[in-house]
Design goal:
There is one protein chain. The protein has a domain of 85 residues. It is 39% helix and 5% strand. It has nine helices and four strands; from the N terminus they run αααααααββββαα. The strands form two sheets. A two-stranded antiparallel sheet has the order 1-2. A two-stranded antiparallel sheet has the order 3-4. Strand 1 and strand 2 form a beta hairpin. The two termini are 27 Å apart.
Length: 254
């Protein structure tokens, strides 16, 4: 099932091309923005509007709408603007084959093998970018450029910034004794990939299993909220947090 989830039929490709036709003729000088640029003042205003904390857990808010809400009148207008013939899907129908693929792609329909689907997709992308296939093959940034890039993405400037939650301190009870207790409870084995702690190496040196907070709350140090993970599996938990929170909770319950 998972192997064909991302395949596109000829019918669907044709449908995409038909939708893009009106925009193909807007390249270069034909585009109304050709040769124009926002002023520094306008850019600054746009930047200020979009500032805010991007919330992944639970709800997602566009940065510019953080803490704001549309009025009932605005919601009504937005609804009316997409009804009937005004809707871009009006009179169009999605084929049964595409509906089935969309259904198979759904997280809730695939939560049992969601990790497998993601790993296959990532492996496919990785293979397509290896060696000479990669546009950066044989190229390198000069040291000066690397330093500038590093400074430009520090703290709130980074797209991965989540309001500083990574700097939150752990509770006093999250000490070596508790961590070792969790590793022993998990038989000194990664609860995700199954690797034993004795087989974990970093730069040729043996390392211990890391202890992960299932609900991502560093203050919640109850044993049922902690799980042993190897370095690689722990790094992957930074993405798809909703999925991993539910995934590990099921493991602990079992």
């Amino acid at each position: 099932m998972a192997s064909g989830v991302y395949a596109r039929t000829e019918e669907y490709k044709k449908h995409l091309i038909e939708r893009l036709v009106p925009y193909i003729g807007l390249k270069g000088e034909k585009n109304h923005w050709y040769g124009k640029h926002h002023s520094k003042e306008t850019k600054k205003k746009i930047s200020e509007i979009r500032k805010g904390i991007h919330i992944w857990e639970g709800k997602q808010h566009p940065r510019g709408m953080l803490g704001k809400h549309h009025s009932k009148e605005t919601k009504q207008k937005m609804s009316e603007s997409k009804k009937g013939e005004k809707n871009y899907l009006y009179g169009k129908h999605i084929s049964e084959q595409i509906k089935q693929k969309m259904s198979r792609c759904s997280y809730w329909n695939n939560k049992d093998n969601f990790k497998e689907i993601i790993e296959k997709r990532n492996k496919k992308i990785s293979e397509s970018l290896k060696g000479e296939k990669n546009q950066w093959y044989g190229k390198h940034f000069p040291e000066e450029t690397r330093k500038k890039m590093g400074i430009a993405h520090l703290g709130e400037k980074s797209s991965f910034w989540k309001g500083g939650i990574s700097f939150e301190s752990y509770g006093s009870e999250f000490n070596n004794i508790l961590r070792e207790h969790i590793r022993k409870r998990d038989n000194h084995r990664c609860r995700e990939c199954g690797k034993f702690q004795d087989n974990l190496l970093k730069s040729g040196k043996k390392i211990k299993l890391q202890v992960h907070h299932i609900d991502y709350n560093k203050k919640n140090n109850k044993p049922e909220n902690l799980v042993s993970l190897c370095l690689n599996c722990h790094a992957r938990t930074n993405s798809f947090r909703d999925y991993y929170a539910g995934h590990f909770m099921e493991l602990i319950v079992k």
